[in-house]
From TrEMBL:
The protein's name in its UniProt record: Type II secretion system protein J
Membrane topology: Single-pass membrane protein
Homology family: Belongs to the GSP J family.
Keywords, in A-Z order: Cell inner membrane, Cell membrane, Coiled coil, Membrane, Methylation, Transmembrane, Transmembrane helix
InterPro entries named in the record: N_methyl_site, Pilin-like, T2SS_protein-GspJ, T2SS_protein_J
Keyword Magnesium: no
Length: 199
């Protein structure tokens, strides 16, 4: 009986083909894993951005015309500059009925490439000051513009414009660069604002 096996050349060709196939599979798997890591990174950046903008918008849409506790004139409900703002907001839920106000003083500032939110309860009737809490909303942020829109639709670099007592701007116009999302712009209407139709 004549048994015939593979020749050395056939074995070498088969090994080379399997090696190339294994290398191609490895490279494909590596690309898929790298793509998945990039997608996860972008997804994490987007979630952080959405969270920061959601908190910012929620604070602004809950703004009330109550004076800031450390304003000696008792005439400013919102103090805004080109690099940050301070306001009083209502609607701070109190589901456990704790002995505290439903009003919160909130400040936003951009410092060291970070978007920072500081908040505290206003002083109680007995004037005991509560501790301030700081929260870094987003890292790697560059503020390009922060302006305050008046009732005539005119932007101002600071607020209050023309010393109006306890007035809120109609809107806050913010433009900034965030990681993975350059050139973002949001215009957030404040309570009581009127939408202008200039057409």
């Amino acid at each position: 009986m004549n048994q015939r096996g593979f020749t050395l050349l056939e074995v070498l060709i088969a090994m080379a083909l399997f090696s190339l196939l294994g290398l191609a599979c490895y490279q494909l798997l590596e690309r898929v894993l790298h793509s998945e890591q990039r997608i996860d990174h972008h997804d994490r950046q987007l979630r952080q951005l959405q969270r920061a903008l959601g908190i910012f918008e929620r604070d602004l849409t809950q703004a009330i015309g109550q004076p800031l506790s450390d304003d000696p004139s008792r005439r400013q409900a919102l103090i805004g500059r080109a690099d940050g703002l301070r306001l009083v907001r209502g609607g701070w839920s109190n589901p456990l009925a704790q002995p505290r106000s439903e009003v919160l003083e909130v400040a936003y500032r951009w410092q060291d490439d970070a978007w920072v939110r500081e908040y505290r309860s206003p002083p109680d009737r007995d004037q005991s000051v509560t501790a301030s809490h700081s929260q870094r909303l987003l890292e790697g942020v560059t503020l390009k513009r922060l302006s305050y829109v008046d009732a005539q639709g005119q932007p101002h670099p600071a607020w209050p414009a023309l010393g109006a007592a306890l007035s809120l701007p109609q809107a806050i116009d913010i433009e900034f660069d965030a990681p993975g999302y350059p050139g973002l712009r949001r215009v957030i209407l404040l309570p009581g604002s009127q939408v202008r139709d200039d057409e």
